[in-house]
Amino acid sequence: GSKTLKNFCITWIIVCIALCVILLCQLLLRSQDQSTVIERSNNSLDMVEMSGFVCGYISCVFYLGSRFPQLYKNFQRKSTEGTSYLLFALAMMGNCTYGLSLVLKMPATESSRTLYFLHHLPWLLGSFGVLFLDFFVS
């Protein structure tokens, strides 16, 4: 248990550091390359945007996965004893307001709305998905 968790945390820290270094390098290369800007279409994604989406989906997977250990523990013990309800209540309120802020900022036009939704999908899945799982924890 604890050794696996320790290894997971160390791996996660290394992955986060690597992603930060990659993003910083891309930002530096992008700023140096401003003199030779090539016009790109509105539908294409550059490397920094794509890295943002990859980070968003990785974040979504880990964020959703963060609730399963607590759900499993509660199921095994058939009890919620020791669970901090204030932590989950605040997390639920935060996820609800964050998800709603993304939904309420949605553009008025249908074509812009679809693109906005696709661009914000990992964060919407993360916030509303964890909110859904938190109902089961509490």
TrEMBL record:
<dbReference type="InterPro" id="IPR051415">
    <property type="entry name" value="LAAT-1"/>
</dbReference>
<keyword id="KW-0472">Membrane</keyword>
<feature type="transmembrane region" description="Helical">
    <location>
        <begin position="85"/>
        <end position="104"/>
    </location>
</feature>
<dbReference type="GO" id="GO:0015189">
    <property type="term" value="F:L-lysine transmembrane transporter activity"/>
</dbReference>
<feature type="transmembrane region" description="Helical">
    <location>
        <begin position="49"/>
        <end position="65"/>
    </location>
</feature>
<feature type="transmembrane region" description="Helical">
    <location>
        <begin position="116"/>
        <end position="137"/>
    </location>
</feature>
<protein>
    <submittedName>
        <fullName>LAAT1 protein</fullName>
    </submittedName>
</protein>
<keyword id="KW-0812">Transmembrane</keyword>
<dbReference type="GO" id="GO:0005765">
    <property type="term" value="C:lysosomal membrane"/>
</dbReference>
<comment type="similarity">
    <text>Belongs to the laat-1 family.</text>
</comment>
<feature type="transmembrane region" description="Helical">
    <location>
        <begin position="7"/>
        <end position="29"/>
    </location>
</feature>
<dbReference type="InterPro" id="IPR006603">
    <property type="entry name" value="PQ-loop_rpt"/>
</dbReference>
<dbReference type="Pfam" id="PF04193">
    <property type="entry name" value="PQ-loop"/>
</dbReference>
<keyword id="KW-1133">Transmembrane helix</keyword>
